[in-house]
Amino acid sequence: MTTTRLWIDGAWAQSGTVGVSINPSTGMVLGEFYDGQRAEAELAIAAARRAFDHTQWAHDRQLRARALMELADQLEARTEALISMNARETGKTIRGASLEAHTAPGTLRHNAGLALAQRGGASEILPGVFGISTHEPIGVAGLIIPWNAPLALCVRALGPALAAGCTVVIKMPAQTALTNALIAEALASTTSLPRGVVNLITESGSDCATLLVESTLVDAINFTGSTRTGKLIAAKAAESLKRVSLELGGKTPLVVFEDADIETVAPVVVAAITMFSGQFCMAGSRVLVQRSVADAWRTRLAAMLEAVVLGPADDPSSQMGPLIDKANVARVDAFVRDAAGYGRVLVRGGPVLEGTLAEGAFFRPAMIEPSDVDVPLVQQEIFGPVLSFETFADEADAVRLANATNYGLAASVFTRDLDRAQRVVRAIKAGTIWVNGWATLSDSYEEGGFKQSGLGRARGSASLAEFQETKTTIQVAASHGQGPRAGAH
Description:
Aldehyde Dehydrogenase, Chain A, domain 2; single chain; Aldehyde_DH_dom; alpha/beta; oxidoreductase activity, acting on the aldehyde or oxo group of donors, NAD or NADP as acceptor; six-stranded mixed sheet; seven-stranded mixed sheet; Aldehyde Dehydrogenase, Chain A, domain 1
């Protein structure tokens, strides 16, 4: 069995510890990987620092654009392998893994364009006095990537970091070690990348991530994960005033008004809680239905959730794969048991304990109607296929309920009244809001959280700002002298 390696300072590396990757659909070992430790993180950080300080990477946007385009080509050449391995390691369906693999190259190409298109500004602020604004890379960036969408979330952070001119250390999760190795192969094959510009470590623990946050050689941290961990990272990074961008937890409300078409919207609601088995920061884990039509929606959603076809990720007929491991099955099941004590169980769901799927980490979707909004079912991110069914009286009540948590990552509004849709969009406190849809994302538009769902923005032109400083230069023409000038403000 081949043991996949780490990519550090332009060469393959290994650690003294070996881990195994498990297929959550079967519980079987897929392969082995070298598990990064603190020593490997130190080497990777030092390599990234040297590359930033002693190569032309930070100064040559043409080089950066060329490297991003080449890396996109290398990933594209590995599309089928990435789909297969991502599905087997994460348990997401072939359709979900295919979405990741087919969109990742485009994300990098979009950022190649940003690398070339970004401009500063200049103006004559007084006669003979010129102001110049330029964007400069902040330095070394540490990217801490979660397991639920390893390829998509890696390139979402890596693209703008490289376009901005940073060098990078990527800390990838152990659950997707073999997928990570394919990404590392693409990096190793990208000849335009100078040595040390991108380093990739797979780690099962947190020593590498902790060092990235603590090291004075690292200038920025990009993290996607839980709100709890994000707060710990922000607190530790504050000791050195390190730049931090965080995309954290979510509790996405899907607001369904009485004029929404149940035939077209109900499948979207079901997809929103079953895609990636609910292990998605933007999962539609709350459905808010107008009270006048609630009975029909309860019945329809219950029937559809009970009919969801569970199966191995590599089976095209599977509508939902497993959770990432059996520990999470036990965790989610305990959550549902507790919720049954304070809510009305509409669909119990639960672990698959019999048949061919029992060896995997499968969990059938659940739907519970809570007694009020202050309960854990509504207030906590579950990260599993558990839907909270809530009702509202009118538009004002819908907005109140939608804003009733500490999260603000995303929301959806379903109505045929577009004036009402825009009123509700303005009133809901969330970074991304869909009208009559869910989970459509674009590299051209920013995403990120309000409230405790994060800091900063991914995608869009604003994503480069997470990895850059802005420098102002005031230049006085020699013929105008060099002293202070009145009226310069």
